[in-house]
TrEMBL record, chain A:
CDD domains: Rab5_related (cd01860). PROSITE patterns: RAB, RAS, RHO. NCBIfam families: small_GTP (TIGR00231). InterPro entries: P-loop_NTPase, Small_GTP-bd, Small_GTPase. It comes from Trichocladium antarcticum. Residues 139-148 have a biased composition (Acidic residues). This is Ras-domain-containing protein. The keyword Transmembrane helix does not apply. Residues 133-153, 196-233 are annotated as: Disordered.
Automatic annotation (TrEMBL), chain B:
This is Rab proteins geranylgeranyltransferase. Pfam families: GDI. One of its GO terms (cellular component) is nucleus. One of its GO terms (biological process) is small GTPase-mediated signal transduction. Belongs to the Rab GDI family.
Length: 233, 494
């Protein structure tokens, strides 16, 4: 759907990195968000992958530059080059696997220690379709429910409390059904301070006068400012 | 999962400096089995960018004599005056500018790696004019380097304008017939000789022209000097009005190195930081490497960089990185209408324009590269100044004098408090690629202040060795976008 042909909304790039244990569904979340698609038995990501997707907010457009890292990366040498200068991080765990939440907490600690100050972190419990909450109206906490076919091992309460303590956004999602996936990215887009988007991305750009990527030099040649961005495909 | 030792690697790349990283980018679609190591626990090698804390541990390591090409690193930080977190800084070890006509940019575009780099404009070049008498204070003059600027400048006399115009016109076609005859007899002599004898240019104007070459000793040869100035002139306006060079946001070449390594990782290369090579042994066609991590790996080829100083008389450069508590607003104004606001400007202090505390005139030029917070290298409201001069015993003193002189004339009325200083020396080494059986050693990173295309040749050569016969049909650094990456200009979602 095209915008109503008015002046183009300001558009900004946001670098986002996905972190989390192997097989929690990082790539599947991205695939759902970018292509609205899901693959059963997806191959593990090798190294990393890079994808982009735009997210339209009422007043601006956010272009996500998504770095999806391999959860099984052995030498902890890749993540630093992805979260460097990242403005947002999606730390994913599998809510049927308690150890994956522990790994997620490690990632959160590492981000808080090493990443750009002011990075927006969202904690995401994926695979909600495997629980009794299904991928329906979401929400309610469950007790032990093995007998009812509920594979949930991490309660909403536990993860939510942790997220609140650490100042993280928190969502439970299903990449398989698509439940809550767009919401995660929209919430991140909304949480990046508008001021920090104006000069350019980065933690140091707050309180800046309003400019939108005015300084970024385009290697595809000088282009007429904004005009091209406004046309819908 | 296979262990490291079970794989026969096609190539082990050691080091993540610019050249090794570009090699990883070049090989990122080759399906070769690549193990990319770095003995450092950071990316970028001699082209790294550091937070304040990183810089501190780096300086401490350099002080123990294990800094490879670096020595004499020291930090002055008055009582945590920066007031911001360490991670709000990204201080570049190699803050080089990249001319618009650089072949590196073409390679970044054809390999699609440019999409992940944010390029900023490098603004005007200035020259420092020391005070001649008490009435006339020191000042900065902008170097006119386009026809329009020569016309409009008030920094030089009408006569000088005419000479400068004549010279710029000459440089644009310096390789064709009538021009060729004029300069060839001076080819290996300093450019200043040509300027003086053939163009009757006075010493002040000579300094202007030499500054455009960023020559570290100020004695660049006519042959090299003309090439560099032509590159500068032909780069003007390529990516927009009013600027000839670019600078990658977040620490210059460090960012290019990391973007290249990311491309390598996306292509399946395995990355290990903090891991070097302890020993190597030739086993038949293969090389067995013992890593500092304790692992043993087998590889067909090893690519490393020469991190040993050459020990030649040509010692190296001395650097001073200073964080200033001012946005230096007047430094970063667009020079012409419609130009992007520059994030980097250059100021040259010609030989003789400064003097040491003991009153000795400076022997070599000092170059100062001022970076605004738009580079992401410091928080808003601050700037980073990178000063460079040839390493001589007085260098440290001269750099401080240049810093003080710059603070005095930079046209910013705020008190330019210095929040942080990092000083170090960087040495030069081998300039050529060496191949010894299955080991390829890339040249030592150059000390020049602008990126030279000559660093790209050895990377291409190493790529050909790794690719073997496949290099014939494969196109170098020419890739299409990976799936899932949209083009900014033709996709717009609903």
């Amino acid at each position: 759907m095209a915008d109503s042909g008015n002046a183009p909304k300001p558009s900004s790039s946001v670098k986002l990195v996905l972190l989390g244990e192997a097989a929690v569904g990082k790539s599947s979340l991205v695939l759902r968000f970018v292509n609205n698609d899901f693959q059963e038995n997806k191959e593990p990501t090798i190294g990393a992958a890079f994808l982009t997707q735009k997210c339209n907010l009422p007043t601006r457009t956010i272009k996500f530059e998504i770095w999806d890292t391999a959860g099984q990366e052995r030498f902890a040498s890749l993540a630093p080059m992805y979260y460097r200068n990242a403005q947002a991080a999606l730390v994913v765990y599998d809510l049927t696997k308690p150890t994956s939440l522990i790994k997620a907490k490690h990632w959160v600690a590492e981000l808080q220690r090493q990443a750009s100050p002011g990075i927006v972190i969202s904690l995401v419990g994926n695979k909600l379709d495997l629980t009794n909450d299904g991928a329906g109206d979401g929400g309610g906490e469950e007790g032990a429910a093995e007998d009812s076919g509920d594979a949930r091992k991490v309660t909403t309460e536990e993860a939510k409390t942790y997220a609140e303590d650490e100042g993280l956004l928190f969502f439970e999602t299903s990449a398989k059904t698509g439940y809550n996936v767009t919401e995660v990215f929209t919430a991140i887009a909304n949480s990046i301070p508008e001021t920090s988007l104006k000069t350019a991305r980065g933690p140091n750009a707050s309180h800046a006068p309003s400019r939108t990527e005015e300084q970024r030099v385009n290697l595809n040649g000088p282009r007429d400012s904004g005009a091209k961005d406004s046309c819908a495909c | 999962m296979e262990s490291l030792g079970d794989t026969l690697w096609d190539v082990v790349i050691c080091g993540t400096g610019l050249q090794q990283s570009l090699l990883a980018l070049a090989l990122s679609r080759s399906d070769k089995k690549i193990l990319h190591l770095d003995p450092n626990d950071f990316y970028g090698g001699a082209e790294a960018a550091f937070s304040l804390q990183d810089a501190e541990s780096w300086a401490a390591r350099v002080a123990t004599g294990t800094g490879g090409l670096f020595r004499s690193a020291s930090i002055v930080r008055p009582e945590d005056a920066t007031g911001s977190t360490s991670r709000a800084y990204s201080l570049a070890l190699a803050p080089k500018l990249i001319h618009a006509r650089s072949a590196l940019l073409s390679q970044l575009v054809s390999s699609r790696a440019y999409r992940q780099v944010e390029f900023l404009a490098v603004g005007s070049f200035h020259i420092f004019k020391p005070s001649q008498d008490p009435v006339q204070p020191s000042s900065l003059a902008r170097i006119p380097s386009t026809r329009e600027e020569v016309f409009s400048t008030s920094a030089v006399s009408t006569k000088a304008k005419r000479l400068l115009m004549k010279f710029l016109k000459f440089v644009l076609n310096y390789e064709s017939s009538p021009q060729l005859d004029l300069w060839q007899q001076h080819a290996d002599a300093p450019l200043t000789q040509l300027l003086q004898q053939e163009f009757k240019v006075d010493s002040e104007l000579q300094a202007y022209i030499v500054t455009l070459t960023l020559s570290l000793d100020g004695k660049i040869t006519t042959r090299d000097g003309l090439a560099v100035i032509r590159r500068h002139l032909s780069s003007m306006g390529v990516y927009g009005p009013g600027f000839a060079a670019l600078y990658p946001k977040w620490g210059g070449l460090s960012e290019i190195a990391q973007v290249s390594c990311r491309a390598g990782a996306v292509g399946g290369a395995v990355y290990m930081l903090g891991t070097g090579i302890k020993a190597m042994e030739k086993v038949g066609e293969e090389t067995e490497l013992q890593l500092t991590s304790g692992d043993k790996v087998k590889t067909r080829l090893l690519v490393q960089a020469d991190d040993n100083p050459s020990g030649q008389t040509e010692t190296g450069i001395s650097r001073l990185v200073a964080v200033i508590a001012s946005p230096l607003t007047s430094q970063f104004e667009a020079s012409v209408e419609g130009a992007p606001r520059p994030a980097v400007t250059i100021t040259a202090f010609p030989a003789g324009s400064l003097s040491t505390t003991s009153g000795k005139a400076s022997e070599y030029p000092v170059y100062l590269s001022a970076h605004s917070s738009d580079t992401g290298e410091c928080p808003l409201g601050q700037s980073v100044l990178y000063l460079t001069t040839l390493s001589i015993p007085d260098a440290k003193d001269i750099l401080q004098q240049a810093l003080n002189a710059f603070r005095g004339v930079s046209g910013d009325d705020q008190a330019l408090q210095v929040l942080y200083q990092l000083q170090y020396e960087q040495l030069s080494g081998s300039k050529t690629i060496q191949t010894d059986g299955s080991t390829i050693t890339l040249p030592t990173p150059s000390l020049s202040l602008s990126l030279e295309d000559s660093i790209l040749g050895p990377v291409h050569e190493a790529w050909e060795k790794v690719m073997g016969d496949a290099a014939v049909e494969a196109e170098y650094m020419a890739f299409s976008d990976r799936e899932g990456v949209m083009d900014d200009d033709d996709v717009y979602d609903e």
